[in-house]
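Tutorial, part two.
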Amino acid sequence: MPVVRFIAEGVGPFEKLDVDFSDGHGNPHPGPHILAGVNGSGKSTLLRAIAWVMDRGQHGFPNQEWQHFLRGHPQSRAFVVLEIPGLPLCVDACTTDVSERWFERLQDWVRPFLPSPGLADIGISVPRTAATYSWARFARGQDPAQQDLFSIAAYAPSRSLSYLDRPDLRRTLGNPAENCLAFDSTIQNEAIQAWLIGLFSKRALAKERKQSFDSYTQSLCRFQSALEQVCDQPVRFDVQIEPSLQPQFHISGQTLNFSQLADGVRVTVGWLADFMMRQDLTKWDESLGGKRPGLLLLDEVDIYLHPRWQRTLLPAMRKALPDVQIIASSHSPFVISSCPGSRVHVLQVDERGRAHARPPVDAPFGQSVTATLKDIFEVRSRFDIQTERDLDTWNDLKRKEASGALRPAEKKRLERLTRDLSERNEELRLLVNSPPKLSRRLVESLVVGETGASKRSRRPPQRIAG
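Running the prediction step on this input gives:
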């Protein structure tokens, strides 16, 4: 159900923003789409702006807090272009304009951005107005209610998943989209545990009654398989029976509850379990042929994860959620270079503090992490800051030495710096200790000696008198 394009004005550090989430030719692209950039470049703001538009005042988005991201702009508005499988173009839009003719103005703003025939044949629109924001959905000849046939959720790093003394199996979600765009509070700990224990219990009962239990097994297998792919090792999910029903995991020879999981695993399992629960509770249209389209917004996807798991996360998600478009922010070169076919969107900040998005590029799959640091993150050195400064000084002194302008004090400093860098590690030792130059006299003697040896080797062998 990919987002194909997102356009906004007056949001956070963005005066204007136009992000292409297609394959570069206007076609849907599932991603992963990775947002990269320095702190303050608007990665989290972009994710939240997409959620703001798609929330329509219904799915838990923190609208009151969002006002702080819109201050300083005379008007804020945005829209997202969606292409849902089996359905025509759909546009969700939002604006801070709540005056009488807001809908017409929003429609006039959206129309020129869309490909021909644009919105000329809009059949249905469903505006929803809140006290602060106005939302609208535009579509071509389709009932917008039919276009909610996908899963959507947004997550910020959270340790919400935790041990419950006695999980309550009645604490289920009212609907799959409940609170799904809240970011910090999207993960529903009680509902997740009720869902997992419920699947396990229903499967056991169905087996005992000799009824079909395939659907429960498939849901549990999807969840367990996703965990194994993320952790890159065998993982088994189970339910403890006594003294109370408790979800538990068997990882690396240990049996762990949710609170005992390492932070990186716990955060990842939290949003993964929550999203897969929402997918499992969705009533999927049979016309989709078993596909489960969706949109997954992940802020700081690499947080708490060891680099080894940063490398496996997105490829694992691509396998576990093949029909879901993933848009994630990350500071990790391991994440960005990990997944073939992903797209990277670099956000930059100008001298006025305003952010903008560079055109997306294919992820640097197959490149070294050092190359990714340089090309995507604009980190020019692979060393720490102090070593980088020392190397710059060392290079300046070596250039002076080569030109014959090195003063005695600078020569001593160069010697000390060479010795200090050499002692830090082997790589630096090889870098600063180049082979010494040979004197001209020694070089000439070697050349003459070699020439003489060559001449002697060409002389005919002398006969030995017998």
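The longest strand covers residues 3-11. In part three we will examine how such features are distributed along the chain.
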